[in-house]
Amino acid sequence: MECVGVRFAHSPKIYDYRFGSQAPPVGSWVVVKTPRGLELAKVRTEPRLGQAVGEIVRVATPADLDQHSKLKNRAEEVYWWLKARLRREGVRAKLLGCEFTLDGNHISVQYSAEQRIDLRRWVSELNRLAGARVEFVALGPRDQTAYLGTLGACGMESCCSNWLQDFTQVSIKMARDQQLPLSPEKISGPCGRLLCCLQYEHQQYQELLAELPRKNSKACSLQGVCGKVAKLNPLAGTVDLVTEEGSTVTVHKSELRWE
């Protein structure tokens, strides 16, 4: 089925939606039908074959954009009202944002909390205040970062809030293989979890490490210098040998022999 990819606010994930006789241009705003109701999204891809998750109702009109702006202001009022209530009652939760659907019939409240909490006690009041059905959505550390948007250690917008489509499992072994310092401050992102970018070059590092001896093993150079492998330099293709005399010698893999 021919679709276009669209992106919603506060998420980089792209979803395929089918369209009518003519595909809306990339960069245009469209109104799409979702399980929550009508929502505004931006077209991010040219027409392509895909598995549609819904349909585009229409290209957004000036009236749609004006309605979205008004609902955004209303959502801001709900946000500050609920934030004040949480603070007043000592509820340990971080309120991230509130969003109305374009028809104004549904409002989702995104929050995060270290412990499981129940916010349903405020549903009735929120129903009256917002005039809409209320949905509470708890976000984990990584999803929270994607929702709010942050800068990464590289100085650019974090991958999870900019373009990353899915979270892939990241392990401490990836940091070890890349010879990175295992300090949490060095290998953790704004979310407090291991950097997603550790996975990007890991396969290349594994291939380079396969051509080198293991750390702490014994190796010798062609010149007869032997010692214990103290450090691996996979990008340079060298290892640092510590000899019995205590000196350190850097040897290229082409001049190295080991069992």
Automatic annotation (TrEMBL):
<dbReference type="InterPro" id="IPR047767">
    <property type="entry name" value="PSP1-like"/>
</dbReference>
<protein>
    <recommendedName>
        <fullName>PSP1 C-terminal domain-containing protein</fullName>
    </recommendedName>
</protein>
<feature type="domain" description="PSP1 C-terminal">
    <location>
        <begin position="54"/>
        <end position="139"/>
    </location>
</feature>
<dbReference type="Pfam" id="PF04468">
    <property type="entry name" value="PSP1"/>
</dbReference>
<dbReference type="InterPro" id="IPR007557">
    <property type="entry name" value="PSP1_C"/>
</dbReference>
<dbReference type="GO" id="GO:0005737">
    <property type="term" value="C:cytoplasm"/>
</dbReference>
